[in-house]
Amino acid sequence: MGRSALAAVIESERFRLEPRGRFRVFRDTYPWCRDSAFMSSYSGSGEHRSPWKWYREMIRPNNRTKFAHAIVPRGGTKPIGYHFSIIRPYRTCFLAIGIQDRAWWGKGVVQEVRGRIVDHIFDHSDVERLQAQVVARNFPSVFNYRKFGFSHVGTLHRCRRDAVTGEVHDMLIFEMLRDEWLARRGDADG
Q1: What burial letters (b/e) apply to 90-118, b meaning 16+ CB within 10 Å?
Q2: Digit-coded pLDDT (tens) for 17-76
Q3: Is the pTM of this model over 0.85?
Q4: DSSP letter assigned to residue 17
């Protein structure tokens, strides 16, 4: 299975998940850096980033090992967020998602998008494990991973500092194996 298949358009009930390259991702997401509440939840720091700092910090898709899908509502053209997937050694894939448009918060976007992305990853790659890191105080993300069936496998204690507030916080590590996902999917289908 070729990894380039992971850079395909994915459809869900309400969204079209469009693969994007690094410069388009940068152009779409850099304005989000001005939203300190969003950035604090997404990366652990509400600090404003210069264009160069954001470009170095953001996930830069190459459509070989790093993938970005713009989350575009059906009938629309502007992304409300992005889903990122990074293939790592040992058949592992790191996941990250950011929904910047507050009008979509609390409306099941993460669950819908993540479900289609996970299906797509497992259907088109040899990935056996999904991983994610979440800022411990980001309760909606923690809830979404737990609801989705991810297991909390570790905590990086006091590993991030918000340059704006000075607050130091933990990162939680979540994981799910292919067999666990297929068992959940089988339960949902049966």
Answers
A1: eeebbbbbbbbeeebeeeebbebbbbbbb
A2: 999 999 999 999 999 888 888 887 777 777 888 889 888 888 999 999 999 999 999 999
A3: yes
A4: E
Long-range contacts at 4-11 (CB < 8 A, ≥ 24 apart): 4/63, 4/64, 5/124, 5/125, 6/63, 6/67, 6/85, 6/87, 6/120, 6/121, 6/124, 6/125, 7/61, 7/63, 7/67, 8/120, 8/124, 10/69, 10/116, 10/117, 10/120, 11/116
Distance CA 85, CA 61 (A): 9
Residue 146 one-letter amino acid: R
Q: What torsion, rounded to 10 degrees, do the Cα atoms 20, 17, 58, 37 define?
A: 140
Residue from 80, 61, 76 nearest 21 by CA: 61
